[in-house]
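Journal club side-thread
Mid-discussion, someone asked how the predicted structure for our own chain would compare to the paper's figures. Pasting it here so we can look after the session.
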Amino acid sequence: MSEAQTTTGGFGKPPLRAIEGQAEDQLASATDRAMIEATTAAVELFAAKWKVDLLYLLAAGVHRHGRLHAHLLVSKKVLSDALRSLQRDGLVHRRVYDERPIRIEYSLTPLGRSLTAPLFALYEWSERYFDDVLAARVDHDDSDGCDARINELPRFKASFQVRADRRAA
């Protein structure tokens, strides 16, 4: 390996300390800080509630505000705010048609579509490891002598859940 590859983790990528064989230091480096800041900024793009849902639905071809609202248990105002935020970040395009009644459609921009691969990677990770996460939570709660398990409220309307169940069958 060349010196440039060694110091950057290979071909311009920073070294990842979580990968076996990487040097272990007690202090984080400037590269670690830059990676943390960049990753945090990227996660914040879709970390707010409903944004991941909207990105997936838009990628699946649901474009109208009413159709998006029909899938999710969210108020129209919160839905509009989330779409506006995604639009502000350049992830979603809002198109107003000159028709009566006015028709508005939302779609992913190329930048928004580029987020579908990392989101799908998170989905795949969740499919593979989330049972382990849940088991760790149960072990932790049992060892603390408390039941801190939270029953999460449903995010989808019943008709959307039924469609998902039929598709899985």
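Post-session note: The first strand starts at residue 92 and ends at 97.
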